[in-house]
Amino acid sequence: MSGVAELSREIAALEAQAVAYGGRYEFLSDFALPDDCKIAVNFTCDFDAMLLRRVLNETPMQFARGEFGGRVGIWRLLELFDSHDIKATIFTPGRICELYPKAVRAAAEGGHEVADHMWEHRVPKEPGLERDHIAKSTAALTALTGKRPVGSRSRHNVTALTEAGYIYSSHGSAHHLPHYISDADGANALLNIPFHFAIDDAMFFSFAWQGSGNTAQRITEPGRIEEMWWAAFEQQYRQQYPGGGYLNICLHPFVSGRALRIDMLDRLITRMKSKPGVWFSTCEDVARHCLDAFPPTVDGEA
After folding, report:
1. How far is it, in rounded angstroms, from Cα 97 to Cα 107?
2. 6: which residues sit within 8 A by CB, 6+ positions away?
3. Which residues are within 8 A (CB) of 300 and not within 5 positions of it... i.e. 6 or more apart?
4. Cα(128)–Cα(125) distance, rounded to whole angstroms?
5. CB 252: neighbour CB atoms within 10 A?
6. CB of 142 within 8 A of CB of 148?
7. Biggest CA pair distance of the chain
8. Spatial distance between the Cα atoms of 78 and 43, rounded to a whole number of angstroms
């Protein structure tokens, strides 16, 4: 086979893969929020505390940073949300129910959504073990809060999540609005509530990346992030694509639970509340609205 023929074959294969991958996504061209809403804002917390530190086998000092999130940070964030009458989504690993049950229970009793964030902040490669982790996390969260979780922030397989009864995931940013993603054969469409790392506190405030050089370490003044996130909010508020904007703010209790960052978030929320038509919703609220108003299509037909 000539070099040109081989190259053409490789390009054709790549094009076929791209088409197949793109076919897994369904974007909502007619997306619209409920009446009088100009933007939906989800405040989400990844309440993993020290679990990721354990998975990465980090040092005791890093474990302590995670523990701060469970002992102090989560309580400060819940107090902040409650002071603004905002219901947040707390993405919680199942093992956190063993480590910080009072905090998880308090979040649920306060009307916040408690959703899945894996069993121990990792997704096993083995399909059977992955399903076991989903079942364990679901059971732990249900037993502690009295309500079965319906959403997950994870890389869990779409099929495994839908089979376990989940109605949405919140991971990845293939689009700036909620959208559907299916498994490899186009079945089991699952709504994805997107977030982006530009609106993730760990990208700016987490001086914690073990084994990385100084250039990879991140510590930023809160005022700079306040203005960045305010600009992101204003852009979505202004654009309204065409039936409303969307913003998912990803926080970590061990990161944003620090006092100076709580103050920054308080200022940011106050600014957002000054605008009419802001829907401070949980991810479940947004998911159920989309599923009711814009259900996924089958074979291209509604």
Report:
1. 12
2. none
3. none
4. 9
5. 25
6. yes
7. 70
8. 11
* Residue ranges in the chain whose pLDDT is less than 70: 1, 18-22, 53, 56-61, 207-217, 240, 298-302
Q: Which two tokens stand for residue 38?
A: 């100009």
Which helix (H) or strand (E) element contains residue 240? Answer: none
> To 5 degrees, how large is the angle CA 30–CA 15–CA 2?
165
- Can you list the domains of the chain with their CATH numbers? 33-293 (3.20.20.370)
The DSSP code for 226 is H
pLDDT of residue 61: 66
How buried is residue 250: exposed, middle or buried, by Cβ count under 10 Å (0-12/13-18/19+)? buried
This prediction's pTM: 0.90
pLDDT number for residue 10: 81
Q: What angle do CA 250, 251, 255 make, to 5 degrees?
A: 145
CA–CA distances in Å: residue 267 to residues 222, 229, 260, 264, 271 = 11, 11, 11, 5, 6
Please state whether beta strands 113-116 and 89-92 pair in parallel, antiparallel, or not at all (unpaired). Answer: parallel
Give which of 178, 133, 169, 129 is closest to 150, Cα–Cα.
169
- What is the token pair recorded at 208? 């914690």
User: Residues 67-105: pLDDT tens digits?
Assistant: 899 999 999 999 999 999 999 999 999 999 999 999 999
**Tokens in use for 42?**
């989800």
Length of the chain in terms of residues written: 302
